[in-house]
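Much of our argument rests on the idea that a fold can be written as discrete symbols. Part of our work consisted of pairing the sequence of a single chain with a tokenised description of its backbone. We regard such an encoding as a compact summary of how the chain folds. The amino acid sequence and the backbone structure tokens for this protein are reproduced below.
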Amino acid sequence: MTDELELLKKDWQKKEFNVPKLSYDEIHKMIWKKSSSIVKWILIISILEFTLPQLLYLLPSYKEGMEIYESFGIAKYLKVLSGLTYLVAFYFIFQFYKRFKEISVLDNSKNLMKKIIKTRKTVKHYVIFSLSMIMVTIIIMVIGVYLNDDITSAFPELKDSLENISAEKLKITVMLSIGIFGVILTLIMGGIYFLLYGLLLRKLKNNYSELKHLAV
């Protein structure tokens, strides 16, 4: 039994000895390539996230749903908010593109670490902005309902069934429904951001830790 154990140890030592040793430059290059790939995916996801929802405008049901905002008197405010959101979204996409171009250039460990930190901050700010815009939209909708004196006009197909409900009770019900929907939507989007961007940010953080360890 002892002889077999000694043979296994010797065999392991031989395998360990034969494992190729990577140089500082080779490890640095591997981390740089991984980081560049991660930032590229961040850029791709942000572009898809911006373009795919625009397809909703092609759906007739979505266009009909926009009429409700007109009846609430908040359509013009939502258009202004949408315009602002587009501008800021373009800004962040451009920033992700800049981060990708910056990190795609092979550099020393110190500069690469700075670029990784910069990229992680940009992503975090983008996620905070996106979730904030959802909540701001919901708040505008709730205020629109609160200031509307004729809620039933927003639901003409349900006007007969809503006649027995007081205007105040209907208003509160709609406001609560919108508020609850907004919270759920924000949580769902937060979860999606956590899965997509969170996973990529964790990988960038690991790359940063490896570079920090390498620089010591």
Summary: Helices lie at 2-18, 24-51, 60-72, 75-103, 109-147, 167-215. The chain is about 80% helix and 0% strand. The CA atoms of residues 120 and 201 lie 6 Å apart. Residues 15-19 have pLDDT under 50 and may be disordered.
